[in-house]
Specification:
Belongs to the P-Pant transferase superfamily. AcpS family. It catalyses: apo-[ACP] + CoA = holo-[ACP] + adenosine 3',5'-bisphosphate + H(+). It is an enzyme of class 2 (transferase). The chain has 118 residues and is α+β, with helices and mostly antiparallel strands. 36% of the residues lie in helices and 35% in strands. The strands form two sheets. Strands 1-5-4 form a three-stranded antiparallel beta sheet. α1 packs across α3. The longest helix is centred in the middle third of the chain and has 18 residues.
Length: 118
Amino acid sequence: MIVGVGVDLVEITRFERSLTRTPRLVTRLFAPAERPLAARSLAARFAAKEALIKALGGSDNVHWTEIEIVPEPSGRPRFALSGTTAAEIERRGITALHVSMSHDGGLATAYVIAEAES
């Protein structure tokens, strides 16, 4: 059963300016393995994290660096959650998270669907 849907859209140039203006945002928003990625990939991951928070209905007990987007061997993105964020997802009874990300034309977008047992 779908318990939440989230979407987010990020202007890549604006996001890149924010990272340049405030370099510590990278360490506050991204897991260590994500940090070396290009700005367009970071923007898509930021959108995915925002979309996850929207699908959850809020950010209580959810921490940015505990949400990592990793590719499956096929290239399909998936969430790798840790710490209190993983515990919160489990506490809410969420059994599956689906994420889709894209970037084109100066924009990055992401959709997230959260599922739980009925």
